[in-house]
Amino acid sequence: MAGQAASISLAVAPFGVAFGVLARQADLNLLETLGFSTIIFTGSAQFAAVGVLGDGGTVVAAVVAGVLLNLRMIAFGVVIAPALAGPRWRRAVSAQLMIDESSAVGSAQDSLEMARFGYLLTGGGVFVVWNLATVAGYSALRGAGDLVETIGIDATIPAVFLALIWPRLADDRQRLVAGLGAVIAFATVPLVPVGVPIIAAAAGVIAMRWPRSAP
User: Fold this and answer.
1) Does 65 fall in a domain?
2) Which residue in 5, 17, 109, 111 has the most C-beta neighbors within 10 A?
3) H-assigned helices in 28-167
């Protein structure tokens, strides 16, 4: 598990660099940029909010975009909560590490103890690497221009999450739910605000009501 957590942490580094570059292009200072990566600490929401600000949008619009993307954390919390037993302050601190990768690793474990260990190890590792990479991108690649899109850094996190979730699609029904959710998300991207397609994709669970195929 430690090797998996380390691999995930290193895999998100280019994405953290990309965020640092884009934050500088949006005229944020270093403290504001680090505030995004330490307090918000959710790549998709950070990119959405900074993208809105960089395009001249209001703070309210940036916050709404980030909130919409982070609504998926409610589902993650339901899955991970049993593994994070303890005082409320400890649960609150642990919740800061609730991201796609830590939730995926934690929920894949067979016991609550290992789920907690995998969740904290992965989340903590990503947190450290993400913030170091943010500083590197902001400071060292200030003139990167369209480097993020040109070399495909913006596709890093979706690829990592797909690699994490794919082995868990163990039967036809699970694959059907995932496929239907993807179709819904892609179909709604040009029609609705940023973040809404991810929420709409949750409608893919209706596939669970379809009759199970015969063995």
Assistant:
1) yes
2) 17
3) 30-35, 43-54, 59-70, 73-80, 88-95, 100-107, 112-140, 147-150, 156-165
